[in-house]
Amino acid sequence: MVVREALEAGVQMIDVFVAAEDRDAMALKEDCQERGAAVLEVGENVLRAVADTATPQGVVAVAEIPPFELTDLPPAADLVLVLAEVRDPGNAGTLVRSAAAAGAGCVIFSEGSVDPFGPKTVRASSGAVFKIPIARSAPLGATLLRLKEQGFTTVGAEGHAAKVVYDVDLRGRSALVLGNEAHGLPREVSASLDDLASIPLEPAVESLNVATAGSIFLFEAVRQRRLSSAPHG
After folding, report:
1. Which CATH superfamily does the domain covering 70-229 fall into?
2. Is the pLDDT of residue 43 over 70?
3. Tens-place pLDDT, residues 194-230
4. pTM of the entire structure?
5. What is the location of CATH 3.40.1280.10 in the chain?
6. Cβ neighbours of residue 85 under 8 Å, at least 6 residues apart?
């Protein structure tokens, strides 16, 4: 349950509506009250009225958005994901979940991207939006410049790039940049990046979903780092 994930991550709840008929939702009531949230038991009809889904999971919550700026990125963070105008909440949520699973330091949503804390994105992430720092509405050009100043190599996912991702060195500080679902990376953004890489595909398949491609890039970075740290001999 997403609300449970948020509570465990320390997110501050403000208002929580729970279905009195739902045993699992009622189990959250005391935890939410202990965190200072105003909790109201409601019927299923009321819950459906305040939720944005036809079949809510028994609880709807209003929470504070965890603040995060790129300047808050800890020095030890060496892998970040940048979403350049990724607009589908399902793709964005999946990418946040993959980034959290890969141990990324943060996910940066550029201006023009979907709201990372919109209900559909939160659900698609399975609560991972509360497990990894997220910057939103970031100006893309200034963000990439700041990342380079902080020692990150910027690598863009580009379907027609000559170099494949497996041949890019992702062992150091790396910022992986993904473009819009329909248009990819803006031309001026591609030109500003340190490297571009593609994923080798069979000729019959033109491209991959951005969430799939981003996940491959993230876990290729994980693979390279594990190999480089493995004992030899």
Report:
1. SPOUT methyltransferase, trefoil knot domain (3.40.1280.10)
2. yes
3. 999 999 999 999 889 999 999 999 999 999 999 988 7
4. 0.88
5. 70-229
6. 110, 111, 112, 113, 140, 179, 180, 183, 186
